[in-house]
Amino acid sequence: MTAPTPIPALELRHISKTYPLKLGGGLFPRFGELHAVRDVSLILPQNKILGLVGESGSGKSTTGLLALRLIEPSSGAILVGGTDITALDHAALKPYRRKLQVVFQDSYSALDPMMTLAQIVAEPLHIHGLGTAREQTELALDWLIRVGLDRSYGSRYPHELSGGQRQRVAIARALILRPTVLVADEPTSALDVSVKAQIINLLQDLQAEMGLSILFISHDLSVVRSLTDTVAVMFNGRIVEQAATEAIFTDARHGYTRALLDAIPALNPRDRRKRAFLSRDQIEAGTPRLSAHDLNMPPSEVARLVPVAPNHFVEAVVAA
Amino acid sequence: MRLLDVQNLTVSFTQHEGVVQAVRGMTLHVDEGESLGIVGESGAGKSVTCMAALRLLREPPARIRADRLTLGGTDVLKARGADLARLRGRVAAMIFQDPMTAFDPSFTIGRQIGETIRAHRPAAKAAIRAEGQALLSRVEIQNPAAILDSYPHQLSGGMLQRAMIAMALSCRPQILFADEPTTALDVTIQAQILQLIKEVQVEFGMGLVMVTHDLGVVAETVDRVLVMYGGRAMEQGPVQDIFDAPAHPYTKALLASIPGRTSGRQRLTEIKGASPNPVNPPTGCPFHPRCALADPHCAAEMPPFRTIGQGRDAACWRLQ
Predict the structure, then answer these.
(1) pTM of the predicted model, to two decimals?
(2) CB contact under 8 A, A201 and B257
(3) Which of A111, A144, B23, B290 is the most exposed place for a label (fewest CB within 10 A)?
(4) Residue B191 has pLDDT above 60, yes or no
(5) Angstrom distance (rounded) from CA B182 to CA B186
C-alpha cells in the first residue's frame, strides 16, 4: 500500500507483538511465543474514522495499545503525523502523547473515583503544563458542556453518573488536549441501546468539528457501519481484509469477513435464516488463493495483503 | 396451556438508599411451545421478572407481590420445599449471561450436570454419565466424554454456554428462561448459540423466554415480544408486527436507534436523557421525561396496558 499524499494522522508499519508463552512447568520450562499481533500495517488518514473489527483474542485491542505505545511493539514502526515515535524515550514521547489520546470501554475503571469531574477533565492540561489552574478548570467546564453535560457536573464524582455520562467525561478528558488521533476501544460496548446512539453521535460531531482521526476498535459491526469510513478486519492477530466501509459490508472477499457478517443478527424477523457455520480451520481454508502470476509480480514481491479492487485489500495465500 | 401466567407482578428491594422498585405491575404470559422475547435496557426489570417467576430472589431484601404468578399451573408464590425444587428444573430451567460464574469452578462439568439429573431423576452412576454425554452431544459439543471430565476454566465461553444449555435441558423442562445468553459471547458464537436454543426449543417442545437488550436477538429468535421500560410493560405483540409497526413511542425510538440499518456514515436517532431511577421513578408513564409526545396527563397518571389490536397491547395515553 502506498501512503496517500497528505501525511496520515497515524500509521502502523509491520507492527508485531509477541509474548513469551510458558510451555510445561517444572524447573526448566520451555518457552514458546504467543503472536498477539502479526505484521499489522494500518493507515489512519487525517480527518477519518477507521474501524478495527474482530472478535475477542483477535488482537484488535493490542493493536490499539501498540498505536498509543502503551505497550511496546516487538517489531515494526509507529508514525504519528509522519514522525516515527517507535524508539522515542519517555521525555521525547511526551509531546506525541498529547496528539494521541484514548477512550476505553469501561468508563468506571477509567475515571479516578476520588477526583471530581472537573479535576478529571483538567488533569491532562495539568500534566502537560498548559495554562493556569483557573484556566484549566474553566476549559474543563467548557468541555463538560461540549460533551453534553453542564458546568454543575464539575463538582460531582464518577459514581454519581450513569455509564453514558461517564463515557462523555472520558471523551472530554481525551479531547481537551486537542489530539490529532483518538483511539476509541469499544467505547459503546457497555452502554444501553438508547445511550449508545448518543455517544456515537457525539463522537461523529466532535470528529467533524475538530478534524479528528479516530481508530475505532469494536466487535459491533452495526456500529462500525454507521460510524466509520474504512474498516480493517482482524483475525488471529492479522489483518485479513481492509477496505472502504461499504465495500466490506457489500463486497467482502475474505472467508472470515464473510463469516463475521453472516453472524450479525437480522434487523427484521423477516430476514431470519438458518446459518451454516464454519470452523476456524474451514475459514482459514477459505482464504482466497492467488498466484503470483495472477498478480503479475514476482513471488518475492507479493505482499500478504493483495489488492482485489481499488483500496480493497485481502489477505491471500500466495502460491508461487 | 399457560406455562407462565403473571398478573400484576411487583418486585421491590429494600436497600439503604431506599426501596428499589424493580418491577411495577407486570402482566405477561407464555403458552406451550411459544417463545417470548423480553426486551429492554438495563434496569428495565426484565431479569428481575424472570428471577421472580422462579423465586430465585432472596426474600428479603426482595419483596414479590402478584395477583397471579403460576408456572406450569403451580402457584409460585405459595410453593415451598419440594414443590419449589420441582418447579426449578422440571417445570422451568434458566440459563444465564455469564456461564463462567454460573458453574462452580471446583467441580467438573460432568459432576454438575449429573447433580442436576440426580436431583430430579435418580439413576445409576453410569446411566447419569451416559445421559450427560448424550446431552453434551445434543448441544453440539465435540468429544463430550472429555468435556464431562473438564473443569469450567478449561472451556471457552461458547462451550460453557453450550454446557449450561445441556444442564438446563437435563430435566426436560416445559419452559426455558434464557437471560441474555449471548451477551458475553463473540458475534459468530452468538449466532451459533441462538440457533441452538431455537432448535432445542422446538425439539423439546419447550416454551422460551428470551431476555435481551438486543433487538437483533429478538428479531432472530422469538414469536412474540414484550418491551419493558422502568419496571413496566410498554408494548407487547407478535414480533413481525412490532418490527413493522411499533405503536409505543419508546418501541419506535428503540427501533430507530439501531445502528447499521442503512449504508454509509450517518447520525443515529438517539433517545435523549437516561433511564429512570428505580428508587425514585417519575410519576405517570416512566418514559414521559424522554418522550416527544408526552403531555401533562402522561406525567400525572400511568396509562393502562390495554389491547390496541390483534394480539397487541400497549401502555400509552397518546395511542387513542
Answers:
(1) 0.86
(2) no
(3) B290
(4) yes
(5) 8
- How far is it, in rounded angstroms, from Cα B34 to Cα B311? 14
Residues A212/A182, Cβ–Cβ less than 8 Å: yes
What is the ipTM for the molecules in this complex? Answer: 0.81
Residues A106 and A186 sit within 8 Å (Cβ to Cβ): no
Cα-atom radius of gyration of chain A, to the nearest Å? Answer: 21
| Residue whose C-alpha is closest to residue B271's, from B303, B230, B232 | B230
The answer to whether the Cα torsion of A160, A164, A170, A172 is positive or negative is negative
Q: Which residue of A has its CA nearest to B195?
A: A274
Burial (CB < 10 A; 0-12, 13-18, 19+), residue B53, is: buried
Task: Mention every residue, 6+ apart, whose C-beta is less than 8 A from residue B218.
Answer: A269, B37, B39, B210, B212, B225, B239
Give the best residue of B270, B277, B287, B290 to mutate against chain A (max A CB count within 10 A): B270
Question: Three-class SS of residue B64?
Answer: strand
On whether the CB atoms of residues A17 and A68 are closer than 8 A, the answer is: no
> What pLDDT score does A61 carry?
92
Q: Which residues contact B53 (CB under 8 A, 6 or more apart)?
A: B4, B6, B69, B71, B76, B92, B177
Rounded CA separation B116/B20 (Å): 33
Distance of CA A315 to the CA centre of its chain: 19
Partner residue opposite A269 with nearest CB, options B190, B240, B253: B240
E strands in chain B: 2-15, 18-31, 35-39, 62-65, 68-71, 74-75, 92-95, 175-179, 207-212, 224-229, 232-238, 306-309, 312-314
- Cα dihedral B75, B76, B82, B88, rounded to 10, equals 130
Residue B287 has pLDDT above 70, yes or no: yes
- Cell numbers representing residue B273 in the block: 436523557
CA A155 centroid distance within chain = 32
- The beta strands (E) that lie in B163-291 are given as 175-179, 207-212, 224-229, 232-238
Backbone angles phi, psi at B63, to 5 degrees: -135, 115
Give the model's pLDDT for residue A271: 87
Evaluate whether B313 touches B306 at the Cβ level (below 8 Å).
Answer: yes
Q: How far is CA A283 from CA A253, A288, B157, in A?
A: 12, 10, 20
From chain A residues 46-75, the ones with a CB under 8 A of any chain B CB are 49, 55-56
Pairing of strands B62-65, B68-71: unpaired
Res. A211: pLDDT tops 90 = yes
